[in-house]
Amino acid sequence: MNRNLNIGLWIAQGLIAALFLFGAYPKLTGEPMVVAGFAAMGLGEGMVVFVGLCELAGAIGILVPVLTRWAALGLVALLIGAVILGVSAGGPAAALFPGATLLVVAGVAWGRWSAPRGHQA
After folding, report:
1. What is the pTM (predicted TM-score) of this model?
2. Domain range annotation of the chain
3. What confidence tens digit (pLDDT) does each residue in 45-87 have?
4. Which residue, 69, 73, 55, 74, is CA-closest to 17?
5. Which of 15, 18, 57, 105 lies in the 20 to 30 Å Cα band around 8?
C-alpha cells in the first residue's frame, strides 16, 4: 500500500474514532436532549443505547487493524440509517453531516478493504 495513502487512512480513522466516541457518550449516558431527539423520530431509549453501543464499538474497532474493515462497514450501515432518518425526519439538510461522514467512513472501508491481507496497518 502506498505510504501516503496509509497515513491518510490512519488520520481519517483517528478522526472517525474521535467523532464516534464523542457521539456515543451522550447516548450511553442518557443525555435528555439526545433521548428526546430519538423520541421525536419515533425511536425509544433502547435504540438510543443500541446506537451508542454501535458507535462505541465502531470507534474502537476502526483503530484495531484486524477489525478496521468490519468496523468501517458497520459504521457505514449505521450512517446509512442516519442519512435515511435525517431525510425523513428533518429533510435533506438534516442528512448533510451524516452523509459527509458516510463518505469518509466508506473511503476508509474501501481503502482498507482494497489493501492486501496483512497490509492494513
Report:
1. 0.89
2. 3-113
3. 999 999 999 999 999 999 999 999 999 999 999 999 999 998 9
4. 55
5. 57
